[in-house]
Specification:
A 3-stranded antiparallel beta sheet has the order 1-3-2, with helices on one face. The chain contains 4 helices and 3 strands; from the N terminus they run E-H-E-E-H-H-H. The chain starts with a strand and ends with a helix. It has about 120 residues and is mainly α. Helix 3 crosses helix 4 (about 95-120). It folds into 2 domains: about 5-85, Hypothetical protein rpa1041 (Alpha-Beta Plaits), CATH 3.30.70; about 90-120. InterPro entries: DUF6164. It comes from Luteimonas gilva. Pfam families: DUF6164. Keywords: Membrane, Transmembrane, Transmembrane helix.
């Protein structure tokens, strides 16, 4: 029976590609399900042979540890060099997006507060 190794919801394409390459490199048979049209399911990478699941999970755990260390190091380097994305850099690059987001937040907070305001009268 197949087992899900990796849910593909919010997974960057490069990470999914690296996991596929890892499974191919270790000759682990897998298949992939695609996301549904309406976003109900996000797709996944499944291990086809139950006998390979434990080995695949160990390899995947090692991969995740290595990726986490690599990405954190890249982020720290970007912060030191001033290339990391910050609120200020987003505000400078996309002021309209920030303004619309803040307006949407205020609107939603107003909707949440509306029943309390109406009931207090």
């Amino acid at each position: 029976m197949s087992k899900l190794l990796m849910n593909l919801r919010h997974v960057p394409e490069d990470e999914a590609d690296e996991v596929r390459a890892l499974l191919d490199e270790h000759a682990i048979d897998y298949y992939e399900t695609k996301p549904s049209r309406w976003g109900i399911s996000s797709g996944g990478i499944w291990i086809a042979e139950e006998s390979e699941v434990a080995r695949a999970k160990r390899l995947f755990a090692d991969y995740q540890t290595q990726r986490q260390q690599r990405v954190r190091a890249e982020h720290e380097t970007a912060k030191r060099e001033g290339r990391a994305e910050t609120f200020g850099s987003i505000l400078r690059e996309q002021p309209l997006r920030v303004l619309l987001t803040l307006l949407a937040i205020l609107f939603l907070l107003g909707l949440v507060a509306l029943p309390a305001v109406l009931l207090s009268r």
